[in-house]
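Task: fold both queries, return tokens.
Query 1:
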Amino acid sequence: MDPFAALGDPVRRGLVVRLARGPARVVDLTADHPISRPAISRHLRVLAEAGLVEAEDHGRERHYRLRRDGLAAMADWLAALEAPAAPRPRFTESAFDGLDLEVRRTGRERRAAAEPATPHPSPPQEETA
């Protein structure tokens, strides 16, 4: 089973978190969850099939422990997401100010070129006597 699919269930994620602190028996793991012991065993079986946990028999008890190497595929995937992306060009505020100035200047020039070239009337002159 795929480790990503195995960890899709919140109970299984909780079991992995608990087993990261150290090995535990099924009865100990059951105490942490409001579900039955057989249900915990089924979740542990899924985690074992995904290569995330392994069991050791100690007499009549089974002790489960986390297989950290089973997490390698997920760690690699997460590391790939954290890799820096290709650098994007960074623009300073002054570059945007210059662009704004150029856009305004070009707009004024276009408006001036579109207006008819009529001379402005001169203000009336006062006659002096």
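Query 1 returned. Query 2:
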Amino acid sequence: MSGLTRSLDGLVRITRGISRLAARLIGLALMAVVLFIGIEILLRKLAGHSLPGVHEYSGYVLAVLSAWGLSHTLLERAHIRIDVLHGRLPALSQHTLNVISLLALNLVAWMIALNAYPVLTKSLANASTANTPLATPLWIPQLLWATGYCWFAFTTSVLGLRVLAALFQRDTKTLDALIGMDNGELGEASTREESR
């Protein structure tokens, strides 16, 4: 294994760890939103009062969740993939399709990240606030949202570099473990290693 490959493996591990931490934090935020929505429903039914901002902040949490969750989902190979033809193709064709799909995803991720930035800068320049009684400065949720998409673009790039290195080394085990449809031995080994 070359030094570049070891460095890329380390970078994939770090990226996976940060993505897992972000997924756990946003999962806790989502559970808090569910709890507050439940309390708000009970208060409205029983006392005729409601908690201000619950719906507004739940929308922010869902937007941030969608942005930050993409990286973790990609690294865990949990995105929905429709396997109509893929499983019937020879291994070389499967690997080719997997690499093409990752590179296409990388392109899309960078397009989203680059288009999220102007939204944030416009809100900062205009000192935009939510059109709600709480008047939340929009740059706060937009910063978290845009950062999530930037992290996703970075993650697809890191994974893309590692996959290209595996492709040039003809390392099919690594290709299967990182972007294949089935759980490869390398993926299981890295999961066991990280759980220690």
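Both queries returned. Flag for query 2: The helical segments are 3-46, 54-75, 91-126, 139-168, 172-179, 185-195.
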